[in-house]
Structure formats: structure tokens, C-alpha cells
């Protein structure tokens, strides 16, 4: 994906400067002002505002003026112009912060879950793996003995960590049988080679029957 970064101007306020003479044609009440807010955007999402731009134009002689051309009274009036809150200009920043909080929470939750599950490997658990070559894959536990686990490895690898859950399909586990001692398993987890553990809970018969919709005659 291509990210385009730049700045844009947004017109946030327009009005007349009352009781002020045009510095050029000396007409009164002819000065029109526009305030623009400059903001940084990524692609189309605004990140944050970076400054203000002020345009002053005389509606009579059509000349443009700088803030410094005005009388101190008019300058003060313009300084006191209330601008609406431009919260939307921060929307990209807010999205980024929320995403970071979500990712960190998810990471901690995953870590806590796998810290518990790794100590009690159970038949049917699916482990997400990160290999030293940078690929990701899974194995599922077929059998657990007093000191070892017996697994079937997934036939496929993924390039991205978020793709690895999609590999977890029954037909992807064929014949790559590998066993680990429980000590080895703890070590793999400690070294970050086991990145996620999913403990599958199979619904009981009684729970299943609750989902049956009674037939009406
Ligand atoms: Zn003028």
C-alpha cells in the first residue's frame, strides 16, 4: 500500500472586520477575512493541524493584505476570533492511538493466555509457530503423555503472522508427526517460537441441543 503524506488547508472561518479602514482605498467595513487551518494528512486521513493561514481582502479595491497591515485594534479582533474545535483534523492520530492500545492489549491477553495454556497442553490445542526462517505455521496436539506431546504439523507456512490462523484447517494436517518433550515445549515458548495457543473447547451434547429449533406443525 502506498502512503501519501502532505498538508492541506481547510477553511474554518470567514467574516468582515468591522470599523476598520482598508489600508489602500480607505473605505470602511470592506475588509473580508478568511482563516484556514493547515493540517497534515496521510493518504486521505487527516493526522493533526500544523498552523493557520489568514487571508484578508478588500471587497472594494480587491487588494490582499497581511495581518501586519491592520490597525492594532483590528489585529486583536482577529486574534480573538473563536475557531470551532477541529477535532476531525486529529482523526488519523486518534485511530493510530486506538489501534496501538488495541494491539498492546491483544498482545498482553495472548501472552497471559499462552503462559497458562503452555503448562497444560491438551489434545486438540492449536499452537501458532514462528520459525527462525521468518515463516509462520501451526501444529495441533494429537496425544499427551506424562512428559511429552505428540503433534501433527501443518502442511503449509504463512508469510505473515495474521495469516497463520487461516492455515488451521483439518485438511492441512496430514502426516508431519513430530513429538516434543514438555521441557522442549516450555523452551520454545520462552524463545518466542510459539506465538499463540488456541485451546479448543468442544461443546457438550447438552449444549448442542439448545441450538435446535423446534419444528412447528
Ligand atoms: Zn480597499
What does this structure look like?
The structure is a single chain. The chain is an alpha+beta fold and about 220 residues long. It folds into 2 domains: about 5-90, no CATH class; about 115-205, no CATH class. It has 4 helices and 9 strands; from the N terminus they run ββββααββββαβα. Strands 8-7-6-5-9 form a 5-stranded antiparallel β-sheet. It has a 4-stranded antiparallel β-sheet with strand order 1-2-3-4. β3 and β4 (about 65) form a beta hairpin. Zinc ion binds near residues 27, 60 and 63.
Number of domains: 2
Helical residue percent?
A: 10-25%
Give, in order, the helices and strands.
EEEEHHEEEEHEH
The main pleated sheet reads as: 5 strands, antiparallel
Shape: rod-shaped
Q: Strand percentage, roughly?
A: 25-35%
Let me know the average pLDDT.
Answer: 89
Number of helices: 4
- Unreliable sequence segments: 205-212
Distance between the termini: 56 Å
* Cofactors, ions, other ligands: zinc ion
- Strand order, largest beta sheet: 8-7-6-5-9
Per DSSP E runs of 2 or more residues, the count of β-strands stands at 9
Radius of gyration: 32 Å
Broad structural category: alpha+beta
Amino acid at each position: 500500500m502506498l502512503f501519501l503524506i502532505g498538508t492541506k488547508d481547510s477553511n474554518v472561518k470567514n467574516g468582515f472586520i468591522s470599523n476598520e479602514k482598508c489600508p489602500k482605498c480607505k473605505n470602511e467595513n470592506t475588509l473580508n477575512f478568511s482563516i484556514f487551518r493547515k493540517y497534515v494528512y496521510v493518504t486521505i486521513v487527516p493526522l493533526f493541524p500544523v498552523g493557520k493561514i489568514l487571508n484578508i481582502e478588500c471587497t472594494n479595491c480587491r487588494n490582499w493584505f497581511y495581518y501586519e497591515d491592520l490597525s492594532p485594534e483590528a489585529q486583536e479582533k482577529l486574534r480573538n476570533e473563536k475557531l470551532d474545535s477541529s477535532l476531525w483534523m486529529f482523526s488519523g492520530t486518534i485511530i493510530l492511538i486506538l489501534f496501538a492500545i488495541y494491539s498492546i492489549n491483544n498482545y498482553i491477553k495472548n501472552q497471559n493466555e499462552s503462559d497458562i495454556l503452555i503448562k497444560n497442553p491438551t489434545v486438540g490445542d492449536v499452537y501458532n509457530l514462528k520459525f527462525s526462517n521468518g515463516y509462520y505455521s501451526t501444529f495441533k496436539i494429537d496425544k499427551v503423555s506424562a512428559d511429552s506431546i505428540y503433534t501433527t504439523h501443518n502442511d503449509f507456512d504463512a508469510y505473515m503472522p495474521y495469516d497463520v490462523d487461516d492455515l488451521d484447517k483439518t485438511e492441512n494436517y496430514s502426516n508431519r508427526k513430530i513429538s516434543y518433550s514438555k521441557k522442549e515445549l516450555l523452551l520454545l515458548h520462552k524463545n518466542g517460537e510459539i506465538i499463540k495457543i488456541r485451546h479448543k473447547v468442544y461443546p457438550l451434547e447438552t449444549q448442542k441441543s439448545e441450538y435446535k429449533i423446534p419444528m412447528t406443525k
